[in-house]
Design goal:
alpha/beta, six-stranded parallel β-sheet, 49% helix, globular
Length: 396
């Protein structure tokens, strides 16, 4: 598709630039770091020499595009563009997602020196943790015990409905330690499917209630945005569990017809009984929290916010099979204990940068708790002690 666009633009460049200049004042590109070089050049080609303000937004330190494939240089590099006079840069180096513990860790593993990065305020983020594990059962057990302690001791952690997730560079990395892991059943897909299932069920109930077919109800919602908005709010409330019986009933009243089969209150009870689980006590919440440890690649978790995130420091593509070395952990280890260095002139500088990009994206996901999971065979006693001395807390 990009090649076809490139051909078409080359045939009609002047006309397209004139049309875009007449129609738009601004072109806004979000997540600019995830744009390929070819895509980025096309956008530049369409806006150069016009009055269109082409604004790019993103975090260049999260650019994962060049880790695989033939591209070795990030398409969007705002610092280079500023030096060449192509663009003016406005840096936002304040995060509102997490507190100082996670912020310092993220700053340490950034692929570039990032001294200005800081949290907007002191928050209730917890000490960064490491888990040294022998196998899947050991890792899960230690992570679950840690979550149990956090929800018991920290009210903000308890009340956060975000995921607890273990992330790794590749699906194969997760599969090796978690044999039951299935990339087709990732949490994000399950999450979307849940919304679809609830929406379809609500639509069916409304069709039955209003004495029309499901197809007719579907058309009605497509044609009436106000009704569609009400149904959307109902579905969101049922999926997240953040809706009372009275709130649900208020959404239903405008949707039902005068000759409907049920009252709004009756349908409200039906939907709540079918979809919403409300724990009877806090212990129910604790048990539920402990069981839900999600698995994802770092690519899959990109853009998400988690309650807690653990980076699995073991990757198939970063193993020195000859010397049986875990290069992913070995490369990141100095940065995890604050020993940054200028690696730009080293022979394996791209490799180091790729590892750091993975760590930066992964460890900037959590709101409260960031951690690393290290196979026991990959870490020495002295390395473990250095991490503890630096401030890491071991989850046992």
């Amino acid at each position: 598709m990009t090649t076809l666009a490139q051909w078409y633009i080359s045939c009609h460049t002047d006309k397209l630039k004139a049309a875009i200049g007449e129609r738009f004042d601004f072109l806004l590109l979000d997540e600019a770091q995830d744009t390929s070089s070819k895509q980025y050049r096309l956008l530049m080609q369409l806006t150069e020499g016009t009055n269109v303000q082409f604004q790019r937004f993103g975090n260049p330190y999260q650019a994962l595009y060049t880790i695989y494939g033939n591209e070795t240089v990030d398409a969007w590099n705002p610092i280079v563009e500023a030096e060449k006079g192509v663009a003016q840069v406005e840096e936002i180096s304040t995060t509102v997602r997490f507190g100082p513990h996670i912020a310092n860790l993220v700053k340490n593993v950034c692929c570039e020196n990032y001294p200005t990065f800081h949290p907007s305020k002191s928050s209730s983020s917890l000490e960064n943790c490491l888990i040294i594990f022998e196998d899947e059962e050991d890792l899960r057990r230690k992570y679950q015990r840690l979550i149990h302690r956090c929800v018991t001791e920290n009210t903000d952690f308890l009340e956060c409905h975000k995921k607890d997730e273990i992330v790794a560079p590749l699906h194969e990395d997760l599969k090796r330690w978690f044999p039951d892991y299935d990339r087709s059943l990732s949490a994000s897909i399950d999450h979307n499917q849940k919304y679809k299932d609830v929406f379809n069920a609500v639509q069916n109930e409304l069709a039955h209630l209003n004495r029309i077919t499901r197809a007719e109800e579907h058309v009605l919602l497509q044609q009436n945005l106000d009704l569609a908005s009400l149904v959307g709010k109902m579905v969101r409330g049922l999926v997240t569990g953040n809706m009372t019986r009275e709130e649900l009933e208020r959404f239903i009243v405008p949707i039902i017809t005068p000759n409907s089969r049920k009252e709004a209150a009756e349908l409200s009870d039906t939907l709540l009984a079918k979809f919403m689980y409300v724990p009877d006590e806090i212990s129910g919440t604790l048990n539920k929290s402990e069981q839900q440890i999600n698995l994802s690649t770092i690519h899959g978790a990109k853009g998400e916010t988690h309650r807690s995130t653990f980076l699995l420091l073991d990757s198939e593509i970063y193993w020195n099979k000859k010397d049986h070395e875990n290069l992913f952990f070995k490369t990141l280890y100095p940065f995890l204990i604050g020993k940054r260095r200028d690696y730009g002139n080293e022979l394996d500088s791209k490799f180091i940068k790729d590892c750091l990009k993975y760590a930066y994206v992964a460890l900037s996901r959590p709101k409260f708790l960031a951690g690393v999971a290290i196979p026991i065979s990959s870490i020495t006693t002295s390395q473990k002690q250095e991490m503890l001395d630096y401030g890491w807390e071991e989850a046992k």
